[in-house]
Amino acid sequence: MKNSRNRKNNIATKSKESKIKSAPKHANTKLIALEGKLDVNRQGYGFVICEERPDDDILVRQSNLNSAIKGDRVLVQITNKSGKKTEGRIVKVIKRSHEYFDGLIHVKKDFAFVLPDNKYGMSNDIFVPQKHINGAKDGERVIVQIVDWNEKGKNPQGKVKEVLSGIGTKELMWKTILMDQGFPLDFPKQVLDESEAISTEISKEEIKKRKDFRKTTTFTIDPDTAKDFDDALSIEYLNNGNVEVGIHIADVSHYLIPNTALDAFAYEKATSVYLVDGTLPMLPEKLSNELCSLKPNEDKLCFSAVFELDTNGKIISEWFGKTVIHSDKRFTYEGAQTVIESGEGEFAEELKTLNTLAHKLRKQRFKEGSINFDTIETKFILDETGHPTGITLKERKDAHLLIEDFMLLANKQVAHLMNKELYKGKHVEFPYRIHDLPDLEKLKNFNNFAKQFGYRINITAPKKIAESFNELMAALKGKPEESMLTSLAIRCMAKAIYSTKNIGHYGLGFVDYCHFTSPIRRYPDVLVHRLLQEHLTKKDFSYQGEMEVMCKHCSSQEKKATEAERDSIKYKQAEFLKTQVGMVKDGIISGVTSFGVFVELLDSKCEGMVSLRKMTEPYEFDEKTMSVTAKFTGKQYTLGNQVRVIISAANPEKKEVDLMFVE
Fold first, then answer.
1. pLDDT category, 31, cuts 50, 70, 90?
2. pLDDT at residue 270 above 50?
3. Does this model's pTM top 0.85?
4. Long-range pairs for 360-366 at CB < 8 Å and ≥24 separation?
5. What mean pLDDT comes out for the span 178-205?
6. Residue ranges of domains in the chain, CATH in brackets
7. Distance between CA 231 and CA 220 in Å, rounded?
C-alpha cells in the first residue's frame, strides 16, 4: 500500500512456525520454531511461553539460551518431546526486553566486567572496554548499557552510563524499577535534537486549515500535580436549546512525524510510566510539557470531537477534525469541584451544565451494561525528599467523573466512526481497545466466596453479570470487605488490550471503543489520530497489515508500565510502614497462598504478609476454601477474615512488609 509506513526496524516479527534447516535432528521431533516470550527462573532455566501453545511452555536449559535473557521475544526450536516437558533451544532473539542493566563492576587494568543482578536471568558478565568504564571504580554499583550483544560469543559488550553508588536511595529505586521492566532511562540525543528542532510558532497558514475554537469558552480540568494537559472541554449554548460540547485533544500527531527517530522511540516506549514520585514520559519535555500541553491563555493545536447534545445527553450531531483552541482557565479537580458544589465562581454555569450532561451520559452507560468498579485508590503524602509521611484515600467526585464521561464519549464515537469505514471491501485495521467477557469458572468461584459475606451475583448472562456487579459495588460501599471483594471481582475480568479484532469492551458496555484522548502519554492514541485524519481527508490508510503486531507491542508495554507502577507503590508502602514497625493494626485477609497469608491494613490500605514458615506450628493450605489451617490446634485463617497483626519488619528495597498475627 503506497502510504503504508515502513516500520521494519520497529515492529517485532509476526508469530509463525518455520523450518530450521541447520538445526540438529532429533528422533520423533518436527523441527519447527515458535515465537514466544522467555522467562528465566533463579536456577537459570528458561521457559518460553508461546501464543500457539498457551498451556505448554517450552523448557530451555541454560546452555541453550544463546544470549537470550528474561523478557526477550524469541524464536525457540523444539528439540525434544519425549519427556514430560517439551524442551527447546533459542535460535533467534527477535526483540530484546532490556538495554540497560544494573550490577557490580569489577575493574581490571585494561577492561572491566559487570555482574548483572540475578533478576535479569543473564548467565554471562557484561564486558566493558577501558574507554567505556567512564570513571567507575572497582566494586561500585553501575548502570551499564549494552552496545553489542555479541550473540556468537559469550559476553555482551557494554558501556557504563552511570555510577549508582553516589545517588540517593529514592533515585536508585526509581531507576531500578524502570530498568526491571526494560524502559530506557533517558532520550537518545537524536530524539532530543529532533524535538528541539520543532518550531514553537503556529503559522497563520496552519490555523486556516483548522476549525477555530479560540473564541469559544474552553478550560482544562486536571490533578493539581499535572504538568501536561492533553485534553480540554469547550461549551457553547445553541439557539435551539441544545449544547455544543467540544472534547479537544492535543494534536500530538501534528508534531510527531512518521519515520523519524522521535516517532520510532515513542512507539518503542509506547507509554508514559507513572511512579509514586515521578514520571517517565513517552515524549520529550518540549512536546509533552510545552507544544502539546493545553496551557491557559495560549493558542494550541488540537484534534477534536465535537457533539451537539440535547438536554437528555442524546447526540444530535457530531463532528471530528483538526482545530485550534485558546483555553480560558486551568482548573484543578478540587477547584472545579468547589465551583460545582457551591454554584459560584468562574464558569459556574458552564460547569453545572457539563456536570448535568455527564450524569445523564453515565446513567445511560450503566443502563447499557457498563460496570462501575469504583476501586479504592490511595495517595501518598510525600515530604520534600520524597519520603512518605502519610497515606490518604482518593475520592472520585463529580469533577473527576465529568472529565471521564466526556472522554469516554469521544473514544466511543471515534471508534464507532472508524468501525463503519470500509477500505477496498474490508474493515480498516484500527487499534481498538477491547475487553473480553469474564471467565465463567472464575465467576462461579467468586460467587461461591461472596455468598459467605451475604452477597451473590447473577451469572446467567453477560448483561445480568454487569447488573449484578453494579449492585454488589453499591452494597459494598464503606464495608471492611469492600477492597478485598472488589479486587477479587476485578480478577474475574479479562484484561483490556489493544487489537484490530473488535469484540467490543465488555466492562464499559460499548460495542466500539478506542483510545483517542491521551496521545501525550499513549502511542495507540497517536495511531488513532493518524488513521482518523486519513479517513477525514480520504487518504489511503497506513499500517494495514502491521497494526495487529503494533497493538500487541503497545499492550505489552502497557503491562510493563503497570508492573512498574505497582512496584513503586509497594516500595513506598514498605518505606512508610518502616516507621511503624512494632505497631498493632487491624486488617483483612486479602490473599492466601501455600507460603503465606496476605493482609490489607484497614487504616492505610497497605498490604503485608504473614509467613507460614514463621508460625508457631505447621499450617496446611487449602486452595478450594482459600484458607490455611493449623495442623495441631485447628486454628484457621480464611480469605476475608478480619484480623489483628503486628508490623514486624519492612524492607523497601525488597518491597516487602512482614506481619505477625496477634492472638
1. low
2. yes
3. yes
4. 360/312, 360/313, 361/313, 361/405, 361/406, 361/408, 361/409, 362/401, 362/405, 364/313, 365/405, 365/408, 365/508, 365/509, 366/470, 366/509
5. 94
6. 18-95 (2.40.50.140), 101-166 (2.40.50.700), 193-436+497-566 (no CATH), 440-492 (no CATH), 581-661 (2.40.50.140)
7. 7
